[in-house]
Amino acid sequence: MRLAFLIGMLALPAFAVQPDEMLDDPVLEERARGLSQGLRCLVCRNENIDESNADLARDLRLAVRERLLAGDSNDEVIDYLVERYGEYVLLRPDTRGANLILWLAGPTMLLAAIAIAVVYLRRRGRAPDDPTALSDEERARLEKLLGS
Fold first, then answer.
1. Most distant pair of Cα atoms in the chain: their distance
2. What is the rounded distance in angstroms from the CA atom of residue 19 to the CA atom of residue 60?
3. pLDDT tens string 78-129
């Protein structure tokens, strides 16, 4: 039973923030942790810098704390990191400018695919029951060609 508990504890994500990185001011540390949750580790992909053990994630965590100690607001810290590393550093990119196209492209293509499917199924439903059936005129011509 104890072994299962220990294995379960090891499976939990461990926060990578080291004690020497933490700020003395609990309010600033809380802000830093909140900002770190929304920043992507550029090495680990889709893991925030708060949970990543990569050296670059540590550098990013230190940069966040450095900027907070310098008196930057949360938005200024984010703007600094985006300017330095690009929008990829954000786990949830904003929906302005060129990103708006990316945010709208998926739902737009889904709606277009649904519309195409509906049109296709409606036209298919209107098709004759037996597409191989010949009209009276075609049947007479066929009989004439076959000589019967």
1. 103
2. 15
3. 999 999 988 888 888 777 777 788 888 999 999 999 999 999 998 887 766 6
**Residue 13 confidence (pLDDT) above 50:** no
Q: Indicate the burial class of 48 (C-beta count within 10 angstroms; 0-12, 13-18, 19 or more).
A: buried
Please check whether residue 74 is in contact with residue 39, taking contact to mean a CB–CB distance below 8 angstroms.
no
Say if residue 66 is in the same domain as residue 104. Answer: no
Tokens 């009209």 locate to 135
- List the domain range (segments joined by +) for residue 84: 2-89
Query: Where residue 40 sits, what CATH number does that domain have?
Result: 1.10.8.640
Contact status, residue 31 vs residue 73, Cβ threshold 8 Å: no
Count: domains in the chain: 2
Report the 10 Å Cβ neighbour count for 61.
25
CA-CA-CA-CA torsion sign (110, 115, 116, 121): positive
**C-alpha Rg value of the chain to the nearest Å:** 31
Q: Is the pLDDT assigned to residue 15 strictly greater than 60?
A: no
Burial of 63 (C-beta count, 10 Å sphere; 0-12/13-18/19+): middle
Q: Bridge partners of 40?
A: 48
What token pair was written down for 52? 């990543």
